[in-house]
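Follow-up to my earlier ticket, as requested here are the two runs.
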Amino acid sequence: MTHHLPPVAILGAGSMGGAIAQGLARSGQAVSVTVTNRTAAKARELDGLDTVTSVALADVPSANTDAAASADIVLVGVKPAMVPDLLREIAESLRPGTIVVSLAAGVTIETFETIVGPDVPVIRSMPNTPAVVGKAVTGLAAGSSASPENVALVRRLFETCGVVIEVPEGQIDALSTISGSGPAYVFLLVEALTEAARGKGFEEADARLMAEQTFIGATALLAASGEEPAELRRRVTSPKGTTERAIGVLQTGNLDGLFSQATDAALSRARELATGV
């Protein structure tokens, strides 16, 4: 198999970093992937993936600097508050031209660039949890010294676990209110439809099966058909039929406005978090 990605390091491979490691392993695109975690138990969770070496800092205290020194792309996946210390730890180990990619919500490109210096291109990313099953939406924002070639390379990396949207950094928080938080909105709708089924007298298992598989089936149809969601909705909604009556009730709830308010609230909170509130 042809490898299209150079050596990758994922420092702090929590749920998101681990999902990306799994995506890279599935794809066979990377020649090698080194992931680090604090504990041996966490490191073991990623053992056995093809081309992935999983190292615990408890066993190898220099694992972060070792991994950073040998990689061409370094993903920073530690908690946001830990990012500056980690960057200071690895800065001297990074070779000029190594691409540093942030997975940390709320940490600005400027924070990264100030610590790693002008010779290290920085790209900020915002993936979402469906990365675990290869269905992520990832936003990418390029730093001041990241070239189009750097961005294209990192794009290919994230495309191993989903689709990629390139945005200016000022749009990353807005993107996170749609795709970052979006899975939770969908799960909430599945919960609500399950409750409606239970209210109609169905047992929990059947109610869940109906609600969950209806969402899964509908999104699979949307993906396979290439049609607009509105067109697929029209096809289900026969004139003067039962679905039309139900949709009429849902539309009285002003769903457009509700989702606009919800995502505005999420964006407001993202800005608060960025200022340390």
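Run two:
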Amino acid sequence: MTDAQKTAADSPLRTTGGAPPDDGGSSDTGAPIPLLEPREGIPPVIADADALAEVVAAFAAGTGPVAVDAERASGYRYGQRAYLVQLRREGAGSALIDPAACPDLSALGEALSGTEWVLHAATQDLPCLREIGMVPTRLFDTELAGRLAGFPRVGLGAMVEGVLGFVLEKGHSAVDWSTRPLPDPWLRYAALDVELLVDLRDALEKELDRQGKLEWARQEFDAIASAPPPEPRKDPWRRTSGMHKVRRRRQLAVVRELWQTRDRIAQRRDVSPGKVLPDTAIVEAALGLPATVQALAALNGFGHRTGRRQLEQWQAAVDRARTLPEAQLPQPGQQVAGPPPPRAWADKDPAAAARLAAARAGVSALAERLTMPQENLIAPDTVRRLCWEPPRTADPESVAAVLAAHGARPWQVEQVTPLLVDALTATGAENGA
């Protein structure tokens, strides 16, 4: 570990500074300055092919990194698609694009190919950007950079305030972005989200370099940019809130039938599934196993506001589960690859439990010295898998190979391999292999 890494907590970026070129950074008193308007005002919303072509040309001719953000309508609409895309680049200014009117942004994505994209919490926006043809080949994630640099609060507003000395207005983060036309205050908020993103990126790059972590960050960013699209989740109905109360297979079948019925309705109506039927109602029906519409209507979530026709469709789903043959009922537990939950280790394999305790202590101590969250230093699942099935010989080469096989980046392997070797050897992993 370098001297810079040892003193990472003494970051000069805990103060304000680094303002936009034509502004003052922070006030004479050191208080952060509210950022109320984009530099060039609120840009017009791009909603037709001709205007989009102009934006593509302008951003292709721009210089330097491009700030990118997307707004979704989570909690209002079905799925996680983008309803507004915001961009800013030197020489091009800012742009707001309506993906509902311009659903194919692949030309813009191609124009920016090879350019570094600056996003905040990139993994949240990349799926919806991919759907409209925008896929970066290089990126800089300002939230992840903040985590690696040891900032205690890494939301965009907190980072802009703590690093650049400006206050972003965040009052519209949870609005229904599928609304048309979008109100000016919402558009102003959206444009401001990319206004300082490149400035923030530049300041964080300097701080990561000062701490000796810039190459680590680059490896993390490359891993995000090169990651394949996630595969569809198996049995998504099992993630229904309150599932821990549902124990019997027949009850599980009710959850599955109601969840799938709700999902089809939500998709057809293009609304959030929770607005069709809340998870609490699904669990209530599973536990109660109502035999009639009247019994269903008496349950929480199926109150007097639910129409007769709706009640009948929910009761039909319950009836399908009630009459399902035993062989077709879902199993109570989802088959998960890998080790069991750590709480069961002490009974199943006390030696593995001892290895995990030692490994966790070592990771925690190192993460504290490096001033970063433990999960960014090494994925907890990787540590669990190593400790549950350690290599036959717990030497640095073998441990490093296991970590790399589970997706650890080279910098992570370099940092944690020594302490994990110590944890395995101190608890006799080799003898237990």
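The only thing I checked on run two: Confidence is low (pLDDT under 50) at residues 1-24. Let me know what else you need.
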